[in-house]
Write a structure and sequence with these properties.
This protein has no helices and 16 strands. The chain has 174 residues and is mainly β.
Length: 174
């Protein structure tokens, strides 16, 4: 099995110490998943989380610039995971067993990161299209009656809204 998760990450230049971005994979619960992460304090990691806590399995020192878009990708082939930044492999790990059927996603551990241009290429499937709606205001935006046409066709029902500074992603599947 093969899967690739790619995104553009940007760490805002703020006073926050904990700026990090992670691709979460083989997720089965809050204390049962694997991760590949980039940290603004110069670490790129692959590891796992279980009932005993966080386990960093491989780490590479790399200075991550602030306020700059960084294209990262996590490629999973069988049991091997590779984290690439701007097309260059930074760290990899062989988990020994092929990944299960857990979920994939993006996250940040008590930190700040902006994700954009997310692409998930699932096994044996063509790349799918998506539409991302981001509410830049401090008030909810009512989407009732809005219509989207194209690869994703949708008429928003009454009561559909995007909260302040929240994102809604629409994905079309065959």
């Amino acid at each position: 099995d093969e899967i690739r998760v790619a995104t553009t990450v940007n760490f805002p230049a703020t006073s926050s110490f904990n700026r990090n971005a992670a691709v979460i994979f083989d997720y089965r619960g809050e204390t049962d998943f694997k991760f590949a992460s980039v940290h603004s304090n110069g670490r790129v990691r692959i590891g796992q989380r279980d009932e005993n806590g966080w386990d960093v399995l491989n780490e590479f020192k790399w200075v991550v610039p602030e306020e700059v878009d960084i294209k990262i990708a996590v490629e999973i082939t069988g049991s091997v995971v590779r984290l690439l930044a701007s097309g260059h492999e930074k760290v990899s790990w062989d988990f020994g067993d092929a990944m299960g059927d857990g979920l994939v996603g993006l996250g940040s551990k008590n930190g700040e990161a902006r994700f954009d241009d997310v692409v998930v290429e699932p096994p044996d499937a063509e790349q799918f299209e998506f539409l991302e709606l981001f509410n830049t205001t401090s008030s909810p935006v009512d989407l009732a009656g809005w219509q989207v046409s194209g690869p994703v066709d949708l008429l928003f029902a009454e009561g559909t809204a995007i909260g302040p500074r929240e994102t809604l992603v629409l994905v079309g599947f065959d």
